[in-house]
Amino acid sequence: MTEDAANTLETFDIMRLLALLPHRYPLLLIDRIVDVDGDNSAVGIKNVTINEPHFQGHFPDQPVMPGVLIIEAMAQTAGAICIASTMRAEGGGSPSLVYFLTIDNAKFRKPVVPGDRLELHVRKLKQRGNIWRFACEGIVDGAKVAEAEISAMMSPKQA
Predict the structure, then answer these.
(1) Cα-atom radius of gyration of the chain, to the nearest Å?
(2) CA dihedral for 77, 49, 138, 150, sign (positive or negative)
(3) How do residues 60-81 score in pLDDT, each as one tens digit?
(4) Where is average pLDDT lowest: 8-12, 102-106, 107-111, 136-140?
């Protein structure tokens, strides 16, 4: 990566995520997005903590983050960069909604547990009109814990 390319990468803090995504506690599953390269790629950050509601039942004696929530966190990371890119292209305005379309080739390799810092690496595979497809990986301490390909559709927010 050239020095100029490194200087253009963005970071979305929690306030920016709240402005972009409709999700709120307990379903906002990302804390920050770093290394945002337009709608091409980004890394979402999820700090996994024991006080999250799903750990009360999954599994109380050996808490494991549900795989479906890992996939949702990947989708939120991809969705946020799609919305930000679309708003930038349209010169601002209100954010659109992103609807999950498909999950393909999902694999879970290691459990994600409280205390982990889950990195959600998303990379755009293709875009056609208002539909995006991403390759996603979940990484904890440098080890791949999950992967999937997801697609999503952008839709204008209904009044």
Answers:
(1) 15
(2) negative
(3) 899 999 999 999 999 999 999 9
(4) 8-12
Phi, psi of 16 (to 5 degrees): -70, -40
Number of domains comprising the chain = 1
CA angle 35-36-37, nearest 5°? 110
Give the Cα separation of 101 and 147 in Å (integer): 16
User: Which pLDDT tens digit goes with each residue over 3-57?
Assistant: 554 457 899 999 999 999 999 999 999 999 999 999 999 999 999 999 999 999 9
* pLDDT band for position 1 (cuts 50, 70, 90): very low
Domain carrying residue 104: 3-155
**CATH code (residue 103):** 3.10.129.10
**Is residue 130 packed enough to be buried (19+ CB in 10 Å), middle (13-18) or exposed (0-12)?**
middle
Provide the annotated active-site residues: 58
Q: Are 118 and 45 in contact (CB under 8 A)?
A: yes
- N- to C-terminal Cα distance for the chain? 42
C-alpha pair distances (Å), 129 with each of 66, 132, 152: 32, 8, 11
